[in-house]
């Protein structure tokens, strides 16, 4: 009699797949139709769940390996023992929290230090970049100057070549020939005149070495006019 | 099997199962509906039973949390609960059992003294929750609480276990000195 209503009640698991389960199947369907991100979140969640469940099973295994006290203890004693064990658990929790806080503070310090170092690194990198930029500018300027000097020298060279050509050209012109001829004529005349004066003075058998004026004239006459 | 054991079966993926044991079918059904309406990342399965032992013919998944619903208006409810408690394995009481007392709002109809239930919960080291399941608002809040507890007991919340929750929920006062 009692079993029947039991069975009925137990047999209507109002589970998420049943009548009221608008929530259940939609969750499963949603997970299947979801994008890969949702699938990733689902997988990560399942992983966390499985980890936690594994931890629970492990702890139960460890607990069951401990030997249970053989003697039958009074209820009060059992309660006292339970309280002691609970206090132990609380102590363990508190020490754990304290250790976590200590580690966190160390962590925070090291992270601040890291941040400072990172800023320094970035600053020095920026500085080195600026210096490299300046170096590059100076090199460019040097190159420009070199090119300018090259062009100038080229100009000078062409000018010189032009001058040479002009000069060579000039040499072949007629006027120069005439002038040259005249020059030769004058040289000859002057040489003759020189010789005449020389011979005049020598022929007069005067001691021209004593007189400074005569000495000067004789020496001057020695100068070969050709050498101008 | 005549005794419910917590770790007889392996957990199914992303599923959490709660078993509501109580004599008032309507209340249990309403509570189950409220729980299923709750927003939950994992799949929820709610099983209802009038009393234990459950028939072994039904293929049911691993039960993560048992809630014994005691109606303070009827002594039969308390008796039924006490009898069902014998069919639960001791390892279940490490955080996977919870007592829910309903009907405390209408003091005049209460035939069970509140302290009786408190003592019962204390002797089984399990948390005791109060809720008037007939009132919609309270029922919804209680459903939310139960869903959170269920998630923790099923191992879906990393870092918190059922035992952990139990030690957190432990109230500092035992049954009052008047009863002792």
Automatic annotation (TrEMBL), chain A:
GO terms for biological process: chromosome segregation; kinetochore assembly; mitotic spindle organization. The gene is CENPH. Belongs to the CENP-H/MCM16 family. The lineage of its organism: Eukaryota, Metazoa, Chordata, Craniata, Vertebrata. The keyword Nucleus applies. Residues 1-34 are annotated as: Disordered. Its main location: nucleus. Residues 1-15 have a biased composition (Low complexity). It is found in: Chromosome, Centromere, Kinetochore; Nucleus. Residues 107-222 form the Centromere protein H C-terminal domain. InterPro entries: CENP-H, CENP-H_C. This is Centromere protein H. Residues 47-102 form a coiled coil. Keywords: Centromere, Chromosome, Coiled coil, Kinetochore, Nucleus. GO terms for molecular function: kinetochore binding.
TrEMBL record, chain B:
Pfam families: CENP-M. GO terms for cellular component: cytoplasm; inner kinetochore; nucleus. The keyword ATP-binding does not apply. It comes from the Eukaryota. Keywords: Centromere, Chromosome, Cytoplasm, Kinetochore, Nucleus. It is found in: Chromosome, Centromere, Kinetochore; Cytoplasm; Nucleus. Component of the CENPA-NAC complex, at least composed of CENPA, CENPC, CENPH, CENPM, CENPN, CENPT and CENPU. The CENPA-NAC complex interacts with the CENPA-CAD complex, composed of CENPI, CENPK, CENPL, CENPO, CENPP, CENPQ, CENPR and CENPS. Component of the CENPA-NAC (nucleosome-associated) complex, a complex that plays a central role in assembly of kinetochore proteins, mitotic progression and chromosome segregation. The CENPA-NAC complex recruits the CENPA-CAD (nucleosome distal) complex and may be involved in incorporation of newly synthesized CENPA into centromeres. This is Centromere protein M. It comes from Aotus nancymaae (Ma's night monkey).
